[in-house]
Amino acid sequence: MAEPRLSANDTSSQAHPSWLGDVKVSVVVPALNEERNLEHVLPRMPAWIHEVILVDDHCTDRTVEAARQLMPDIRVVPNLRPAGKGNALRSGFEAVTGDIIVQIDADGSEAPEEIPAFVGALLAGADYAKGTRFVSGGGTSDMTGLRRYGNKAFVLMVWLLFRVRFTDLCYGYNAFWTRVLPRLELDAEGFEIEAMFNLRAVKAGLKIREVPSYEDDRVHGVGRLLTFPDGWRVLKTILHERFGAAKPSPSPPLP
Question: Residue 162 is part of which domain span?
Fold first, then answer.
C-alpha cells in the first residue's frame, strides 16, 4: 500500500473531548457482506462517538454477527429498500439520533481516525464537510487511472454547470449536520448518492468545506463499484440536477 493507515491519537481516544461540547455524533456504516473487514473499522472508532449505526444492506454472510461481536452496543438497521449504497445510506440517515452524521465505508479503506477532522469542520461553521482525495493531505491507492480521469471530468463538468470548484465528486467519506437532511430530499439508490448530495448541497446554499482524506485499498474482497455503469449513473445525476430537477424547496436559514 502506498501509505500507512493513520494511527489513533489523543483526540480520537478521549471519552468526550471538551471541544465537542454537547454535540452528539452518529456514524453510519453501510455494509453488504463486509464480515471480514469490520474488524479494521469498528474498533478504531473514536470513543466519544454517540452511536454507530451499521446498515445491513441485504447481507448474506455474518456481517451483522461480526459487528455485534466487535461492538456490542452497535445499532443495526436493515435496509428495507432494494440493495444499493444510496438506499442503505438513506436508511441509516433516517435512524440517527445525533446532531452530526458521519458516513464511512465498511471495507477498511477510510480511516476512522479522520473523523475528528470532519467534525471539526462542522463545528467551525460548515454545514457539510465533504472528503476529498485530491488536495494536500489527501490521497488514494484505490483508484484506477480510468476512474481518476472520470472523476476529473465530472469535477470539470460541475464547475461548468454549477460554477462550484470541487476537487472530488464521488468520495464516500463525508459529514454533515443532521438538520440539513430535509433540505436535500435525497433519493439516490446507488453509488451516485455522493454526487447527488454534493450538488443538492450547492443548490440548497449549504456552507461546504472540503476535508483532506486518504483512501486506502479495501482490506478484503472486491469493490462493488462498476466503472462504466456507476459512472453513467453519476453523469445522469449531474445532468438531472442541472437541467431536469427542481431545486430543493427554499428553507429558512439554518440555526
Answer: 10-243
